[in-house]
Amino acid sequence: MGPAGDTVPIAELLDERRHLLEVAHRMLGIAVAAERVIDEAYREWYGLTDRQRSRIGSPRAWLSQIVGAICLERLTPPDPYGTAQRCARERGQCDTGPEGGVGAVLPPKPETLSPAERAAFVLSDALGTAVGTVEGSPGQPEPECAEPANRARHSLRTRRAQPASPSRQDGIAHAVRQACADEDAGRLASLLTPDVTAFFDGGGKVRTVTRPVTGSEGVARSLLTLLARHPRTTLRTYPVNGSTGLVARYDDQVAAVVALDVAGSRVVEVWVVLNPDKLRSWNRPRP
């Protein structure tokens, strides 16, 4: 079974990314530069091993520190010793206390702050005292356990052998949506084949599952966690890739698009797109 327990609710994913963007933008003052910093921070997150990530008590705080460290590197003259950078980038933590580190370099009057010092103030303010820690140093990403292209070809062969009519596809998509809305894990699992596989495409730009999740129970748990009910989240059926799928919105923003591959009377594969870049076309203002 895949890492269903690593799934994060959509509301948490988007709140986390918005928080990181706010921190980076306040430090750098440029939206495009802030986006690049966030992308680099998530690359560092995915550069950790599963074991290292599991030791991080607060991923949001850890990522905030990485974002702050990257911004400081862009604003601060090169440090021949790299002490602050190694502290923040290699261990995912930095000293913000009165003895040294970020807090120690702040002058008493905000109007006297240099760009780097002003950024340090933003970082300290964003992190507060709730700082997550991780033991060890970042490592190399672990190998992928499956090749999505091979899965896709298998799915196509399965669908050709047992094609689902458009009305059946539509009915199953509506049933999946209702099971998610009711948070009914048993009903959702019954709509999936025993060997169903779910793929989560975050593009390395949001904190989501890195490997396919397999098995009806694991996939059901992952979907229910991702699409958990929240006052600002909605889930609707919608045409996706020529058939009926699901679209999840957070406020007015499309946060996830879910394609369902149906064979016979059940779902054989689930494709979840969370990558903000791939969702831009879904979020463009309609004329």
Describe the protein's architecture and organization.
By secondary structure, this protein is of the alpha+beta class. It is built from 10 helices and 6 strands. Strands 2-1-6-5-4-3 form a 6-stranded mixed beta sheet, sandwiched between helices. Strand 3 and strand 4 form a beta hairpin. Helix 1 crosses helix 2 (31-47), helix 1 (10-28) packs parallel to helix 4 (59-75) and helix 2 crosses helix 4 (59-75). The protein is elongated and about 60 Å long. The termini are far apart. The model is unreliable at 91-113 and 120-146 (pLDDT under 50).
Summarize the structure.
With 287 residues, the protein is an alpha+beta fold. The protein is built from ten helices and six strands.
Question: How does the SSE layout of this entry go?
Answer:
Layout: H1 10-28, H2 31-47, H3 50-54, H4 59-75, H5 83-91, H6 115-127, H7 148-161, H8 166-182, H9 185-190, E1 192-201, E2 213-214, H10 216-226, E3 233-240, E4 243-250, E5 253-263, E6 266-273
Parallel strand pairs: 1-6
Antiparallel strand pairs: 1-2, 3-4, 4-5, 5-6
Please report the total strand number as a whole number: 6
Total DSSP helices = 10
Question: Order of SSEs, N→C?
Answer: HHHHHHHHHEEHEEEE
Helix content: 40-55%
CATH T-level fold name of the largest domain: Nuclear Transport Factor 2, Chain: A
CATH first level of the largest domain: Alpha Beta
Q: Provide mean pLDDT, rounded.
A: 77
Query: What percentage of amino acids are in beta strands?
Result: 15-25%
Termini, distance in Å? 44 Å
Q: What Rg do the Cα atoms give?
A: 22 Å
Low-confidence stretches: 91-113, 120-146
What composes the largest sheet? 6 strands, mixed
- Strand line-up in the sheet with most strands: 2-1-6-5-4-3
Q: Outline, from the CA principal axes?
A: elongated
Structural class: alpha+beta
Taken together, the total number of domains comes to 2
Named CATH architecture of the largest domain:
Roll
Organism: Streptomyces kaempferi
Protein name: RNA polymerase subunit sigma
